[in-house]
Amino acid sequence: MKPRNRRLALVVAGVAALGITAALVLNAFQSNLVFFFSPSQVAANEAPVNKTFRIGGMVESGSLKRLPDGVTVQFVVTDTAKHIPVQYKGILPDLFREGKGVIAQGRLESDGMFRAQEVLAKHDENYMPPEAADAIAKAQKGELPKK
Amino acid sequence: MTNAYTLAAHADGRGNPMFRFAAPQAFFPLAGKMIPWFAMLAAVFAAAGLYVSFFVAPTDFQQGESYRVIFIHVAAAWMSMFLYVVMAIWAAIGLVLNTRLSGMMASAIAPTGAMFTFVALWTGALWGKPTWGTWWVWDARLTSELILLFLYLGFIALTTAIDDPRRADRAGAVLAIVGVINVPIIYFSVKWWNTLHQGASVSLTKAPSMAATMFAGMILVALAAWMYSIVTALWRVRSIILERERNALWVRERGGEA
Fold first, then answer.
1. Is residue B114 assigned to a domain?
2. What are A's interface residues with B at a Cβ cutoff of 8 A?
3. Disruptive mutation site among B5, B52, B62, B142 for chain A (greatest number of A CBs within 10 Å)
4. Does residue B44 form part of some domain?
5. H or E element in which residue A53 lies
6. Domain around B154
7. Does the residue B46 lie in any domain?
8. Residue A81 sits in the same domain as residue A55
9. What percent of chain B has pLDDT over 90?
């Protein structure tokens, strides 16, 4: 084996070993790398108890309401299978919408209410002009776009 | 500067154009000739890309005008990952073939890569505030991109801390190759884990989930960033060649003109 080929083999073997190590480590830390838990995971008791954590999902359409004190909002986070009611006192991000993604950080109280200290909007990877969005919304409702 | 490895490289390179330009002396004028062409391409792509991005592309239905950060952000993020891979490949070639130019190329790419990583993080923060409601979160995508910045800075620090350039190249090469593991982690982080960062809008495996003019603007800016990276890398590698070969006859003969 030429020294050059030996060095090449060393580099390839090194990268392969590192790759396997990284894969194993990341696999072992899988649960710690999770940024948020879905309502189903919370229902399956996978989320930490009595500790602050984040839940993520969609804001259920029609669930957003403002409590009588005027600053607290309540909405339901869902992954279509399970639902968790969330209360949050503060200003919601601009992109917070019903039917769109949201991530809330806080605690799950014993009454089943998630009290959030922070609410973040999670937007998706779709970008389009407003006209296209309108057309899609109409098509979903079964209306044809006006010519 | 004649020693074992330069002699070996020259012996190998006889007749093979790929190895001919592996000699810094031969690559120096070639790089000088390429710079104006790539600079011109960079300027054209940048002008076209920024025009399409900011004047032609429509407003987004959700995010309004703030989505336009995407044009800079995505191009910078792509380049930050791509340049790291290129840098690691040069580093690996340098380790395996013991060519001098490879280490110089890796060193020449690093600052541009670090700059794009910083731009990606910075524009991401500026984008995160109006869309997500926060400048920064420790999710897998953002954290791994921050690690990429530290890898670049670590590479630059390590190679400049060692006086002997050959030893510096080898030490830097090991760091660059080890760090390359991070690049797929950055790219796939949004698929493998729950993250606040959204998934890819544009990838090789599916149609882009964005309007055509938006996509065009993004590609043009990305091409401009790519050409710019080539220009800065070639520019820097010329300086590195002159600095390292300052005692060589061909550099001395150039005298004041360089």
1. yes
2. 4, 7-8, 11, 14-15, 18-19, 22, 26, 30, 33-38, 56, 92-97, 100, 103, 118-134
3. B62
4. no
5. strand A53-59
6. 68-257
7. no
8. yes
9. 60
Residue B16 lies in a domain: no
- Parts of chain A with a pLDDT under 70: 142-147
For residues A44 and A92, state if they share a domain. Answer: yes
Question: What's the DSSP call for residue B55?
Answer: I
Residue B235 has pLDDT above 60, yes or no: yes
Place of tokens 């620090």: B157
pLDDT band at B228, cuts 50/70/90? Answer: very high
Q: How confident is the model at residue B258 (pLDDT cuts 50, 70, 90)?
A: very low
What the block records as the tokens of A29 is 């830390």
Cα B106 from Cα A61, distance rounded (Å): 52
Mean pLDDT of B119-146: 91
Burial class (CB in 10 A: 0-12, 13-18, 19+), A56: buried
- Amino acid making up residue B192: W
- For testing the chain B interface, which of A58, A127, A131 should be mutated: the one with the most B CBs within 10 Å? A127
Question: Whose structure tokens read 């004041």?
Answer: B256
Same domain, A25 and A48: no
User: Is the same domain home to A48 and A86?
Assistant: yes
pTM (2 d.p.): 0.85
Which of B36-45, B83-92, B210-219 comes out lowest in average pLDDT? B210-219
Number of structural domains chain B divides into: 1
Q: Are residues A110 and A95 in the same domain?
A: yes
Domain that holds residue A12: 1-33
* Residues A50 and A11 reside in one and the same domain: no
